[in-house]
Specification:
7 strands; globular; 3-stranded antiparallel β-sheet; mainly alpha; binds fe (ii) ion
């Protein structure tokens, strides 16, 4: 197995694609469909060249190459992390056995389903973000948006490769369907609800890359543990690209908070909307929304499907190998969020295998908290008493234990009437959305930035902020 990508091929890859003519032909016939999907459903802003990074190998050091390229000529390819020939299954009923290089017949349907669900989210996010280019706050941000978009396109390639290479005719059909479903479509929507909502403005984009891409990171983390080695290796490399998406979200919100704080200090008021900023209260509401819909993506607190996936070795836990237990969990318990008998928001103990979604969500929540701490440090350093806060796990939930009740961001249960009366104080309401959208005026001049966000501390790949990241027609 080589680590360097072969760029002489039509489809760049490090999986020796030329050795399997049938597979190569199948993927080469999928490629034009992908490109026409990109042209029709990808970024709508016309551009000439964008300063993008492309993967050149999968090694720890120097895997990326940077350069100006027309986006449609981006070399989407197939890159798997290096194979560990001694890799053994780390958990479940097959713990200790060699990792699988082929799909075992008994798990074929389940594995295919997991890959399709993951694969569906990748092009979905490109579709959700397609109109954002028109209102980018700077060329630097525009470039980051496009980098995220091309990489989500590559993640689609990663899943399509697995479907074509390991799942026969069914896999090829599913690969076709991944381009037919579209975010928000009436007839053929994307599989998961959160991926059918448009990302209408840049505050939503930063929240999406912080909270929803981070859900993706945790899902990939569980698939990286999979006994099915090609899936594991694919996800391992995708996680490297995903780190940049998290960075875009984290620093994007940093910069919004920073600018808001500047305006608050300058005008000695919290009401920065009239001064062209986004008030902290609105930032909090957008956070409340994106965090709560992202929690829903983890599924119900208890799940027999996920217990079965774990036992079968299809998907593990976050950092499976660092866990100090027997990795089979047949006799362990776990506390999960629940509505108690007297109707309060509380916890209940269930079999550990059943509570694996809750286990993953717990890891995710503590990761989300790190961002909130960062943003609060910006407030603290500016001497502001206000703080941002993750809402309660029971707030605004449509999936799982709390889907049938209403709760405040502080986790107090309220009646449906109370919820309806107050939800506009907790989630972005029409006034908030109108204000945020009014700020979304494009700033496409080199070195300039919109007034609602602070410039980044550093540019990309050692370039300054005022670099020509995107060439517009
Ligand atoms: Fe992705
Ligand atoms: Fe991502």
């Amino acid at each position: 197995m080589t680590t360097s990508a072969d760029y002489t091929e039509k489809i760049p890859n490090n999986v020796s694609l030329h050795e399997d003519r049938r597979l190569q032909r199948a993927l080469e016939s999928w490629q034009p469909n992908f490109l026409s999907w990109w042209e029709s459903m990808g970024p709508t802003l016309p551009t000439q060249e964008v300063y993008l990074r492309t993967a050149v190998n999968v090694g720890r050091e120097g895997w990326a190459h940077f350069g100006h390229v027309p986006m449609r000529d981006y070399r989407w390819g197939i890159f798997l992390a290096e194979r560990d020939r001694d890799r053994r299954i780390a958990f479940g009923a097959h713990k200790g056995e060699p990792a699988w290089q082929k799909v075992p017949g008994e798990y074929r349907a389940d594995l295919q389903r997991l890959i399709v669900i993951q694969g569906d989210t990748e092009p979905a996010s490109v579709e959700q973000q397609r109109n954002l280019g028109a209102t980018a706050p700077s060329l630097y941000d525009l470039r980051n948006l496009f980098q995220v978009n091309v990489e989500e396109g590559r993640h689609l390639w990663a899943m399509v490769y697995l479907l074509h290479a390991y799942f026969g005719r069914d896999g090829r059909e599913e690969a076709g369907e991944l381009l037919h479903r579209n975010s928000g479509s009436e007839d053929a929507p994307r599989i998961l609800g959160a991926f059918n909502e448009e990302t209408p403005d840049w505050l939503s984009f930063f929240m999406f890359t912080y909270f929803t891409d981070r859900d993706g990171k945790y899902q990939l983390g569980t698939l990286k543990e999979s006994a099915f080695d090609p899936l594991s290796r694919t996800c391992e490399f995708m996680l490297k690209e995903e780190a940049h998406h998290m960075f875009v979200g984290t620093t994007g919100i940093d910069r919004v908070v920073e600018r808001t704080v500047q305006l608050m200090a300058e005008h000695d008021t919290d009401e920065v909307a009239v001064h062209g900023g986004i008030p902290l209260e609105m930032i909090q509401k957008y956070m409340n929304f994106h965090y709560s819909v992202s929690l829903d993506l983890f599924g119900g607190e208890t799940s027999t499907n996920v217990a079965n996936y774990f036992t079968a070795g299809l998907k593990g836990r976050w950092s499976e190998e660092r866990r100090k237990d027997d990795h089979q969990l047949t006799s362990d318990g776990i506390w999960v969020d629940s509505v108690t008998e007297d109707g309060e928001i509380g916890q209940a103990e269930v079999a550990a295998l059943l509570g694996l979604n809750a286990d993953l969500r717990r890891e995710y929540i503590s990761d989300c908290q790190n961002g909130v701490n960062r943003w609060n440090r910006i407030l603290e350093e500016a001497g502001m008493p206000q703080r941002l806060k993750l809402p309660s796990v029971a707030f605004n939930r449509k999936v799982g234990a709390f889907s049938g009740i209403e709760a405040t961001p502080d986790g107090k249960r309220v009646s449906v009437e109370e919820w309806q009366r107050q939800q506009g104080d907790w989630l972005p309401n029409a006034v908030d959305k109108t204000h945020v959208r009014s700020l979304m005026q494009p700033v496409h001049q080199q070195g300039k930035i919109a007034a609602w966000i602070a410039p980044p501390r550093q540019g990309i790949n050692g370039k300054p902020f005022d670099y020509d990241y995107v060439h517009l027609p």
